[in-house]
Every structure is written in structure tokens, then in C-alpha cells.
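Hi,

Apologies if this is the wrong queue. I'm a grad student, and the batch job for Ligand-gated channel from Pseudoduganella albidiflava produced an output file that my downstream script rejects. I'm not sure whether the problem is my script or the file. Here is the sequence I used:
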Amino acid sequence: MNTQKTLLASAILAAISSTAHADTSSAEPQGADPQGTGQVQQVVVTANPFRSTEGDQILTPAKVLQGDELRDKAGSSLGETLSQELGVSASAFGAGASRPIIRGMEGPRVKMLENGMAVSDVSGLSNDHAVAAEGAVARQIEILRGPAALLYGSGAIGGLVNVVNERIPTTLEPKLTGQAEARYSTVDTGKNASGTIDGSVGKFALHADGNWRNADDYKIPGTRSIGDPDSGSGRLANSFTRERNVGLGGSYVDDWGYAGASVSHLTNLYGIPSAEGSRIDQEQTRYDIEGVVKAPFAGFENLKLKAGHTSYEHAELGEDDAPEVIFDNRSTETRAELSHLPVAGWRGTFGLQTENTHFSALSAEGGPDTVPVTRSTSQAGFLVEEKDLGPVRLSAGARLEHVKRQPVTGLDRSFGLKSGSVGAQWPFMPGYAAGVTYSYAQRAPATEELYSHGPHDATVTFDIGNPDFEKEVSRNVELSVQKTAGLVRWKANLYRNKVDDFIYGNVTGVLVDEEGNPGSDLRERIFEQGNATIRGAEAELTVNEHGAGWSGRVFADTSRGKLDAGGSLPLQPADRIGASVAYKMDALRAGLSLVHARGQDRLASFEGTPTDSYNQLNANLSYTQKAGALDLTYFLLAKNLLNDEIRVSTSVLKDIAPLAGRGIVFGVRAKF
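Support response: The file is valid. Your script probably expects a header line. Output copied below for reference.
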């Protein structure tokens, strides 16, 4: 424990002491170019009602991945793409399914959005379910917490991830713009092609995007199971993925605003590298409409209306390719947001949100259903405001929500949810700021937590919910300090989250059959409630983050999740420290990064083995040249260069499914 504290303290002290070498007399805005190269990066958080830049997010600690950084980090899943961001880990359920975990919070506590609307898949139910949002065609990916999260759901206790692809265009492009990319990876003989294109005809803006990915089972450094030479080696069986995604959109854009619609379709067949070798055949069709009216009424800045319908289904396939359980989710969501001009110094957004879903997980073989057909409805009103009080910036939000769950068999439940958040940011000297945020949030138990009572073959469990669960109540306080100007910048966050009636799946050790009777096929997993506390700290320092020439980054993060009655929460992330160095000048970019994760032995009562420490060394190299109207970028990405055996503590399959070994990605990207 002393060593763990020293690890984080060293990173924070290094961040603070390094400011002695920074030019504190300057106070460039976020994205400024201290090298004078003319390259200024504008990073805007679209999921924030105030459209703040990333550097302003002391009240809602945020990260925005975009441009070359996003392309370098893009993986086969959203979890892999974000896994090295501050405070973010991944569930790592094979190459096909890996969901972001934020500060030790996973599942329904981390809300997944696409262009500010719920993704409406079932990835929050279980780690083997892939997120139905594609990072390969995203323009940026945002990680957000704090008051702004109240716009999107009371259940976002851990935060939210917003994948922005702008399928509904908001501006008229004077000429065709877009990009196309092809890449090949050696570790899984993976082929990936993706592209986006935007244009306009008169006042109509048009958009199209697509992604195609084929990857075989990936190579692993050692044996599949720890210390078991008979478990297999070479490649991890059933870790392949086959994904297709296409999206079309258009809008009418005028001086008053815009109105548009989009449609997208996703198919994804991927393996689950468990001992049983299940596969998941996923399909989703999504329809969205959106409109913004500028200055709709006196005193108001804009009115935004959104509606979306999602039809989602996936089948868990057995060894004979026959479906065993079919998950189905039909969801319709509406949102109305009205932003007002300053009133007594306060500016903000208020609105209404509704959601109507029909979810089920039914047996395809005539056995017991995992989750019965359940209709869920919610109606919510929210308000988020911001005000400058002298040098101090105040931010506050509130949300009232009513959730009702109605299974075809079982007990109907209704939950009244009240959530709120308040924060203050104080620039105590030029280029420096400190902040404090307090959030109170209530979350209704998810459908599967209430009504599960059947086999879940991909996780090899027999899940049992409890229809009498109480709502979760989270009280989170966070202290932050950061340096926002100069060549050297840094930030550090401390947080404590007290959650009453925390819901978690307890694997009891009892073995049952497909009917729930004593047997040897499935592990009994019972959803339970208990009070829990999550504490953590994060620190990050960057040097010349956006300028030309040399740049660098060091970071460290740690979190502890414990049940108040004793014992750790399951799937807790390991302590990490990382460093990276990069160089960019004219057409050349290169970088090297190393992340060290400590061994993790803070286990829940039913978790069997700790995870060892690991080192993950990655590198990137790219060169851009002009070819007529095209910018051609040839790039090389090296992942896990040390070929280390990496088993992450946040993976249910850590004992039998290590991450991929050494791999090289070759690719070319064309922009026009």
C-alpha cells in the first residue's frame, strides 16, 4: 500500500515541480501554438451544453480524442481505443467486445452515446456484448463527467462516452471533403477499410461513411491459461471479428439553423474466447432526426430537437452455430434542449428527454429465458447552468426522472430519480486553476439486474436478478488542480464516490445446468446490493502537447472500490503509470509510449487469481505527402513491442484470454 501511494505521489510531485521550467509569463489559450508553426488545435466538447474546450473541463474532467491522436489509438473496439486515457480502462472481452471502464465504474454506470443520443445497444448488460458505435469513422470521441452528464441520464454515475461522427451535417461544405483509410495488422492478419465523405448541393448537406473489418484469431505471447501448457498457445482461439458498418445522412442548412436525418446499419460477428467458444452475431439499424433553430424566441440562443429509433438484436451462437440466447432491444428516444442567453449572469440549457424500450433475452432452444420481455419508459427534465462570479466560475445541474419497468411476467417497478451537481473553478493565478465538484445521482436498477433468471452462455453463468432492488444513490466529491497555460501543462484529480445500494453480480461458486438445477455447466451469478466506496487519484503532465517539434506526456492513475461490509468490488483496475514522447515536424510524425500496470490483488470474494504487472510499449511513425488534391499519409503502428503477456484485472476472462502479443499495423490514409 505504501508503494502504491508513493507511485502516485511521485507523479503528482513531478507534475508540480516541472512548472519551474515552464514559461509562466505566457497564458496561451487551449490549443495555442507556442512554436509559432501556425498549427492550432481546436478541441470542443460537443456533449457539453456550453461547448467548452477540453482545457476548461476542470468541473467535468474530459478528454477529447480527435485527428491524428484518434487514428493512432483506434483499435478494434471502443474499449481498446480509450484504454490508455487518464482514469479509463477496458473490459477486454476478446477483440470484438471491450467496453470503457471509467474510474472503476462499468456497465450501466457508464453511458454510451453517439452524437449525443444513447447508443441503445445491450453492452451495459454484460462485458461480452460489443458497443454498437464505431470509432473508425468517428471525428472525435469524448469522455465526460460532472454536471453536463446530467443532460443524458441519471445513471451516468461513472460518466459518459460520446462518439461523434456527425452523420447529420450541420454546415455546408463548399466542396467534397473526406478521407479513406486502409490498414493491415500482423497480429491477427486483420484488414480494415473505412471512409467518410461530406458535400453539399445547394442548401442540402450530405454525408456518408462506412467501415469494413476482418480480423482472425490474434497471436498471444505465451499459453492461453496461466501456467498451463496444455491450454493452447500461438493464437487465442475464437478471438476473431467480422464487422460492417455504413451510415448515410443529410440536412437542410440555412441561416435559421438546420434540420436533417440519418440512417445507419451495423453487423458484427465476433468470437468470445471463453472455454466454451461462443460467438455473437450482432445487428443494429438506427434512425435519427435532428434540428436546431437559432434564436427561436427572444432571450434564447437556440432550440435543439432530436429523436432516434434503434432496432438491435444479437444471437449468442453455440459450437454448432445454432443460436442459444437471442437479445433484442427496440428503443425510441426523444430530446428537446433550449439554451438561453445570460439571465442575471447565468447561462445554460434546460430540456426534456423521453425513452421507450422493449428489451428481452430469450432462449432460442425452448429453455428458461435469461430476461423476459420488458418494457421500460422514462421521462426526464434537466437543467444545467453556468455563471462567472468574479474570478470564480460556478456550474450546476439538476435532473428529475421517472423510470418504469414492466415485464410480461413479474413485478412492475417504478423509480423516481433526483440528481444534481454543483462545482466551482477558481483561477488562483494566471494559467492555474483549482476546482471542486459535488454530484448526487440516483440510478434505477437495469432490467437485467431486476429480472434475470436464466443462462447466459457467453459468460458461462446462470444469472439471477432481484425485482425488489432499491435504486442506487451516488455521492461523489472531486478536487482538481491544473496548469492550463505555457509549454508545460498538468492536472491532478482526487475523488471519492460513496454509493448506497451498489448493484453487482456475485458469482457464488455453485454450478448449475441450463435449467438452474444442480449441475456442472454454468456458474451461478446472483445480483446483489451493498454499500460501496470508490476512491481514486489521477495526475497527468504534458510538454508542448499540440506544438511542432518534441512533445511528451507522463501520467498515473489509481482507484480503489470496496464494499463497506468488507471486500473489494469486482473487476477493479490496476494502478498505472505511463510516459510517452513524440516528434512532429512538417510531414513527419513519430512517437513512443510505455504504460506500466502494477499487479492487482484487490479481489472480490469470488475472484480467484490476481493479475501480474505488465509493460505495454507502443510506437507510431507516419509520413504525409501531397498527391494532387490528396494528402496521403503512410503510417506504421507497433503495439505491445515487448511481446509482454498482458492480462488485465478488468477482464472477466483474464485467466484464459490474455491481450494480443506483438503486432505491427501498416496503413495508408487519403484526405481530400
